[in-house]
Write a structure and sequence with these properties.
The complex is a heterodimer of chains A (about 110) and B (about 110).
Chain A: E1 5-7, E2 10-13, E3 19-24, E4 31-38, E5 42-50, E6 53-57, E7 64-68, E8 74-78, E9 87-94, E10 102-103, E11 107-111
Chain B: E1 5-7, E2 10-14, E3 19-24, E4 31-37, E5 44-49, E6 55-58, E7 61-65, E8 71-76, E9 85-92, E10 99-100, E11 104-109
Parallel strand pairs in B: 2-11
Antiparallel strand pairs in B: 1-3, 3-8, 4-5, 4-9, 6-7, 7-8, 9-10, 9-11
The chains are: A mainly beta (about 110), B mainly beta (about 110).
């Protein structure tokens, strides 16, 4: 069974640009969560989607948004990029809520 | 507010040594998970503990959940270079989002 896949794996952008990251969950998994990981703050929760509905949202500005499609694939978008948005963005999927999360390899975003 | 505190933040040891890392909170969790993350990869789940006082063993790794379900420890016996990585603990409360600690970065030198 294929794991969680994230594209792209690496991305370099400049301040003010926007970026869209993609996550394909494990087949049959309906929940997708997004996290931002930085050395200083660790893993911080961005948002969680289940059956195309946002269930939870972390404490991030409105520049961070996401969505989930009917096939459970998810995208997150960051607009007006700032230097501090440089991080590893991780996606995790679950078959059902409160079950084990499986993480993808992440997208490493560098904002110059 | 960091609800889960992990210590130590960094640990560098020689192959064959034993070590313990800690995950502490002032809050009660219904479950606690430990992950290992290697460079360039996402975290991989090692174990989930759900009962106060529970001890689980995974080869050379021993996980313990505190009696009050507020803290946990991970003990590694005879560490090997392959154990190198970032160890993360995460607390869960039902269907609420997981809360992660900042991790312990372990380096095992050959």
């Amino acid at each position: 069974k294929a794991g969680v896949t994230q594209t792209p794996r690496y991305l370099i952008k400049t301040r003010g640009q926007q970026v869209t990251l993609s996550c394909s969950p494990i087949s049959g998994h309906r929940s997708v969560s997004w996290y931002q990981q930085t050395p200083g703050q660790g893993l911080q929760f961005l948002f969680e989607y289940f059956s195309e509905t946002q269930r939870n949202k972390g404490n991030f500005p409105g520049r961070f948004s996401g969505r989930q499609f009917s096939n459970s694939r998810s995208e997150m978008n960051v607009s007006t990029l700032e230097l501090g948005d440089s991080a590893l963005y991780l996606c995790a999927s679950m078959r059902r809520l409160a079950e084990t999360q499986y993480f993808g390899p992440g997208t490493r975003l560098l904002v110059l | 507010t960091q609800l889960l505190e992990q210590s130590p933040q960094f640990l560098s040891i020689q192959e064959g040594e034993n070590l313990t890392v800690y995950c502490n909170s002032s809050s009660v969790f219904s479950s606690l998970q430990w992950y290992r993350q290697e460079p360039g990869e996402g975290p991989v789940l090692l174990v989930t503990v759900v009962t106060g006082g529970e001890v689980k063993k995974l080869k050379r790794l021993t996980f313990q959940f505190g009696d009050a379900r507020k803290d946990s420890s991970l003990h590694i016996t005879a560490a090997q270079p392959g154990d190198t990585g970032l160890y993360l603990c995460a607390g869960g409360r039902g269907s609420e989002k997981l809360v992660f600690g900042k991790g312990t970065k372990l380096t095992v030198n050959p």
